[in-house]
Model the fold of this input.
Amino acid sequence: MTTVREICQFLNEVAPLAIAESWDNVGLLLGDNKSEVSVIVTCLTLTPDVVDEAVAAGAQMVVTHHPLLFKPVQKLTNSTSEGRSILKLLRSGIAVYSPHTAYDNAPTGINQQLAELFELSEIAPLRRSPPEAPFKIVTYVPRENVEQVRRGIWDAGAGVIGNYRDCSFNVDGIGTFFGEESTHPAVGQSGRLEQVAETRIEVVCRANRLDAALAALRKAHPYEEPAIDVFPIQQLPGMTGVETGGAGRFGRLPRPMSLEELNRLVSERLHQPKLQFVGKLDLRIEFLGIACGAAGEYLRDAHRAGCQAFLTGETRFHSCLEARDLEMAIILPGHYATERPAMEELARRLTQRFANIAAEASRVETDPVQSL
Done:
């Protein structure tokens, strides 16, 4: 039987948590890593009707693009819609995972899927992330607990070097400690000097995953007071750092076309009969910029990349005015239209990867925005 942890590992391969935005709340947000999974529901947003659907389907896991618990939570009660949903999920033993911005910008993620849907060539990120000097986390763990601690750190997005994940260095040694009378050591007894066979674990970690990795380490570590060191890795001459990819996509259309033609193409391929746009219908477009969801902040990046048009789900009024000033087009098919198909694709990929799992995109989820 497949476990939540195995699903999380696969999802981290598809959309590495290390590339998520630093402000995001991604990964396993609810549930037990050891729980068994046979039914998964994917969705764009985990609304109450999707929760009811998952419970009725006997699902053990939901993969939602938009995270639960996105803002800090001080209370978890049935007085709010999110609180009621979370309590129902907990009672039903349903785990929740969110890839969010990691999936937006992954090599085979949402923006890449959109770029390929419109048959763009010369595809590249709209906003490249600069190479980043990572940190190194070092801790010391009883040998019998090495796997649980390493796995906790890895699941939080640490241990990624280029296209390799679950990276660490481990060396065995002897640790000593003397616990005072008030301590409750996980190994040995208080009030005497103890010597313990331990393993030193070293793991690299990007800055945006450091807090999550340290929290996961402390949770998985058996000691009351684990020894943890964090070292910034100094960039030396000639070192390129860790390449973190980039956000959004842009590329060349199969042929130059007018905005009117491109609007029709977007409407057809995203199954969106009505869409909003900014720009003159006869504007000649050769390069298209793409950023799913609500990503008007990438308009300037698209302009710098030489794009004549920029596609995002929705944006602010002032971004539309800015596009007009730049003599660019903006195409706005809707937040749902730009992201929901990728969650259907993720359900297909889960089914292909795990033969013993039934994964399906929510059937009750719909676009809340409607047109006459």
